[in-house]
Design goal:
Elements (H helix, E strand, L loop, with lengths): L1 H10 L3 H28 L8 H12 L12 H39 L10 E4 L4 H12 L9 E5 L7 H4 L3 E5 L5 H6 L7 E4 L9 H18 L5 E6 L5 H5 L5 E4 L3 H11 L3 H9 L6 E6 L7 H10 L4 E8 L2 E4 L12 E6 L4 H14 L1
Parallel strand pairs: 1-2, 1-4, 2-3, 4-5, 5-6
Antiparallel strand pairs: 7-10, 8-9, 8-10
């Protein structure tokens, strides 16, 4: 496992890797030369000395370990072979270790400054950083979902010169650049990601929607060009730009415009509703909303609701998506048609599938 990775690392071919490879080859070559020299000089004096023993002696001497199990007894072995090992061998080994340390420091520096090409797969890309707290909250919410708990998160923004300290404990990877440019998105390995969340660069400026639209449209074009299904969700500042944003053909559009006003009115009419909404929209606590594709074509919503109530799992059918539009608390007589999706409130995403199987089995019976 280790050797193939090492070979691939060298084949990537940047300057540091070339220097490490060259130093490693020279160090191994010197080890063999000194070992062979030691063998031919000492074999007549030291009974039972093998070539492998001699190469071993050269290695432990070059690395300054010096076990003492083998040592030179001849004049040539001591003052020509051993001196050469001390002076030349140890120097090259020091150079090798220094080069490796330099490569590691350079990698850490590039990662901190956001200039390293992203090689992660199935990661989530977050474009723009209106505030560190907003991005951190976004990551916390996603990680509260089992599917994304171990996911890698890549923040693409030109706002920072290096990753802020607040992100370092969250393992968020930073890529410096404007996500409006295709080369920056490709550097973020967008073709291998799970999805992209595009935040408004300035949540108070409706003109930010223009940049958000551009990023969403570019990702969708990349998705089509590479034949890769990339989930894209965009944040909208102004509802007036909703039609424009839909033309980007992203998977989802979220607008906070006017939501605060509606929440204030609902809280005024029914104090305590804010806490209800807060629990429903967070992944961190309580039950969550889920949208399911379903095979229950022809079944009434009431039939599904009864089956759900009889099932031991804790979930509720609260609506359906019909023709791409949500219908909450639908009429009980409405039937599920091909392409409809169920909206549910549940503790776990997988609970509904067992209920669906039970309903289908009863129909067959």
């Amino acid at each position: 496992m280790m050797l193939p990775r090492l070979i691939r690392w060298f084949l990537r071919g940047n300057e540091i890797q070339f220097r490490v490879g060259k130093a490693l080859v020279v160090a191994i070559g010197l080890n063999l030369i000194f070992g062979i020299g030691f063998y031919f000089v000492e074999r007549g004096i030291q009974e039972g000395l093998t070539l492998a023993d001699s190469i071993w002696w050269a290695m432990v001497t070059m690395t300054t370990v010096g076990y003492g199990d083998f040592y030179p007894k001849t004049f040539v072995g001591r003052y020509i072979i051993s001196y050469s090992v001390f002076i030349v061998g140890i120097g090259f080994l020091g150079y090798l270790l220094g080069t490796v340390a330099e490569a590691m420091i350079e990698k850490v520096t590039k990662k901190r400054r956001g200039i390293m090409k992203i090689k992660s797969k199935n990661h989530v890309i977050i474009c723009n950083c209106p505030s560190t707290e907003k991005v951190l909250q976004l990551v916390r919410e996603l990680r509260a979902n089992n599917q994304y708990s171990a996911c890698t998160y890549v923040l693409v923004t030109e706002k920072f010169d290096e990753l802020p300290d607040e992100f370092k404990e969250t393992d968020v990877i930073f890529l410096k650049g404007n996500p409006m440019y295709e080369d920056v998105l490709l550097k973020a390995n967008v073709t291998e990601c799970d999805g992209v969340i595009v935040l408004a660069n300035d949540p108070l400026d409706p003109d930010s929607d223009i940049q958000t639209f551009a990023i969403g449209a570019i990702v969708e074009m990349i998705s089509s060009e590479y034949n890769r299904d990339i989930k894209v969700v965009t944040e909208l500042v102004s509802k007036k730009n909703f039609k424009m944003m839909r033309r980007a053909q992203t998977d989802g559009i979220v607008s906070t415009d006017g939501i605060t006003d509606c929440l204030l009115v609902q809280e005024y009419l029914y104090p305590g509703l804010h806490e209800v909404f807060q629990q429903i929209i967070t992944n961190i606590e309580g039950s969550q909303f889920y949208i399911f594709d379903t095979r229950l074509d022809g079944f009434k919503v009431s039939d599904i609701q009864v089956a759900v109530l009889e099932h031991p799992e804790n979930l509720q059918v609260i609506g359906i998506f019909k023709n791409g539009h949500p219908i909450l608390n639908p009429p009980k007589t409405i039937k599920i048609e091909a392409g409809d999706r169920l909206i549910m409130l549940a503790d776990n995403k997988g609970d509904f599938r067992s209920i669906e199987e039970d309903i289908l089995k009863k129909k067959i019976a």
